[in-house]
Amino acid sequence: MLETMKGAIFDLDGVIVDTAKYHYLAWRSLAKRLGFEFTESDNERLKGVSRMESLQILLEVGGVEANEAERLEMAEAKNKEYVEYISRLEPAEILPGAREYLLELRNRGVKIALGSASKNAAFILGRLGIAELFDAVVDGTKVSKAKPDPEVFLAASAALGLNPADCVVFEDAAAGVEAGKAAGCKVVGIGSAVILRDADCVIAGLHELV
């Protein structure tokens, strides 16, 4: 599977870099302003989910009602705080093995894309100093349907000029694994074999592949 793939499509958070902690801090801060606690356990439900859907889950947790204008204002405030965190990101925060594996794939002639719900993906890749290693970046600014919908991976494989069947997706969330399979790609799960049981194989991190 990995030896014969023509394209590799990577999720961002939890695969290339751990920005999930910054998302959590920003969501927790918003919840505190709204008058309730948002725990790390609650935050697990936001993995691989779009910003507005994440907000919906957070409001459900807190039992908070909000109209459309208020929701947009909340999402913007959360994102502003998150961007403040990631504006201080450094190349050293790339997860172990990620840069090395990306370089190895480029040397093999495998095309590389990012497939992420994040609207800050291009900015993050720039901060990490690895933007030039990607042939295509498909993120939340280019797709409208959140995982487990396969839109992001279908768009990424198309951007690489490849059939989904010739691509392998690297994902750390169950919704992302489901999206990759629905797109017709092979999927490498990164994390728990129990949570990612539908992946074609599961590893602890990209460091296992270099």
UniProtKB/TrEMBL annotation:
Pfam families linked: Hydrolase
EC number: 5.4.2.6
Protein name: Beta-phosphoglucomutase
Gene3D superfamilies linked: HAD superfamily/HAD-like, Putative phosphatase, domain 2
UniProt record similarity statement: Belongs to the HAD-like hydrolase superfamily. CbbY/CbbZ/Gph/YieH family.
NCBIfam families: bPGM, HAD-SF-IA-v3, PGMB-YQAB-SF
Coiled coil start-end: none
UniProt keyword list: Isomerase
MF annotations from Gene Ontology: beta-phosphoglucomutase activity
Key word Isomerase present: yes
